[in-house]
Design goal:
By secondary structure, this protein is mostly helical. The chain has one domain. The chain has helices at residues 3-18, 20-27, 33-51, 53-57, 61-85, 90-97, 100-111, 118-136, 144-169, 174-196, 205-221, 226-230, 235-241, 244-255, 263-287. The longest helix has 26 residues, at 144-169. It is globular, with a radius of gyration of 18 Å. The relative contact order is 0.23. The mean pLDDT is 83.
Length: 288
C-alpha cells in the first residue's frame, strides 16, 4: 500500500468513527456506557475473527502484544468518551476529543526532550480557548463541567493511542493487531460492565440497528483498519486526518440529532477547526 491509499483509507476510517458519537448517544438513553462498549466490541471481534481467523491463528507474539496494548489504551479512551458523551453534545464531544491532533506533536516533542514548535503551541492554545467557549454552551446539563473534563481526558488518552498504534503496527500484522485490539476491548468492557452490575443487551429493533452500525461501520471498519493505514504513515500525519472525525460528528449532531448552535458554540467550533486546519497546513508543508 502506498501513502496515497493509506491516506484515503484513514480518511474513510475517521469519517466512519465520527458517526459513532451519534449512534452511541442514542443508545446511552437506555443502556450503560460499558455495556454498550462490551456488546459493540465483542460482536466486532467475533465478526472479524470469523473473517480473518487464519491471521489470528498465525499471528506473531508482536501482533498479540501490540493488539493487547492498544486494546487496553483504547478501552480507557472509550470509557472516558462514553461517560463524557452522556453529559455533553455529540459535536462538542467529538471536537474536544480530537484535540489529540495537536497533542500528538506536543507529546512527541516531550518524549524527544525538545520544545514543540511555535505553530503547534498556537494551535494548542486556540483549541484550549475553543474548549472554553464550548463548555459555556453545555449549561443544559447539570454535570457539564464533569462531561467536558472526561472528554478532555479522552483526548489525552487518544493521543497516546495514536502514538502507540504507529509503533506497534510496524512490528506485526496490522489486521491481526486490530482484531486482537477489539477482542481486548470487548473483554475488558464486559468485565467492567459485569462488575458494575449494569450489563444488558439492546431490547428494541432500533437499539439493535444502532448497535449493528457501531459494530460493522465504526468498529469492524473504523477500528480494525486504522493500524493498516497507519503502518504506512507517521503518527503526526495520521493525526491530521482525524479532523474528519469531529466534522462528521458535528454535522450529524446538528442535522440529525437537532443539536442547537449558539454563538458561543459557533465560536468554539470555529476556534478548534482553525487550530486543526492550521496544524494540517503546517504538517503538510513540513512533509513536503
Amino acid at each position: 500500500m502506498n501513502k496515497t491509499n493509506a491516506r484515503l483509507l484513514l480518511a474513510a476510517v475517521f469519517m466512519a468513527r465520527g458517526t459513532s458519537f451519534l449512534f452511541s448517544k442514542t443508545l446511552l438513553r437506555d443502556l450503560t456506557p460499558m455495556g454498550i462498549l462490551a456488546v459493540r466490541f465483542v460482536c466486532a471481534f467475533l465478526v472479524l475473527g470469523a473473517l480473518f481467523h487464519r491471521k489470528l491463528l498465525r499471528c506473531s507474539r508482536a501482533s498479540l502484544r501490540g493488539g493487547i496494548i492498544l486494546g487496553v489504551l483504547y478501552t480507557v479512551c472509550m470509557a472516558f468518551e462514553m461517560y463524557g458523551l452522556r453529559l455533553v453534545d455529540t459535536g462538542v464531544s467529538a471536537l474536544i476529543e480530537n484535540m489529540a491532533i495537536v497533542l500528538v506533536p506536543i507529546f512527541t516533542a516531550i518524549t524527544a526532550r525538545a520544545w514543540p514548535n511555535r505553530k503547534t503551541m498556537v494551535c494548542a492554545a486556540l483549541a484550549v480557548i475553543g474548549v472554553g467557549f464550548l463548555s459555556r454552551t453545555q449549561g443544559h446539563s447539570p454535570n457539564a463541567a464533569l462531561g467536558i473534563l472526561l472528554v478532555v481526558l479522552a483526548a489525552v488518552t487518544y493521543a497516546f493511542c495514536i502514538l502507540a498504534t504507529e509503533r506497534v503496527s510496524r512490528d506485526g500484522d496490522p489486521v491481526a493487531i486490530g482484531i486482537i485490539q477489539l477482542g481486548t476491548m470487548g473483554a475488558l468492557s464486559l468485565a467492567a460492565s459485569l462488575c458494575m452490575g449494569g450489563f444488558s443487551l439492546p431490547q428494541t429493533g432500533h437499539q439493535w440497528l444502532m448497535m449493528m452500525l457501531l459494530v460493522l461501520l465504526c468498529s469492524c471498519f473504523g477500528f480494525a483498519f486504522q493500524p493498516l493505514g497507519q503502518k504506512y504513515l507517521p503518527a503526526e500525519e495520521a493525526a491530521v486526518l482525524t479532523v474528519l472525525n469531529p466534522v462528521t460528528a458535528s454535522v450529524m449532531g446538528i442535522l440529525i440529532a437537532g443539536e442547537s448552535m449558539s454563538v458561543s458554540k459557533a465560536i468554539g467550533y470555529l476556534l478548534i477547526l482553525i487550530a486543526l486546519v492550521l496544524y494540517n497546513l503546517h504538517a503538510s508543508r513540513r512533509a513536503s
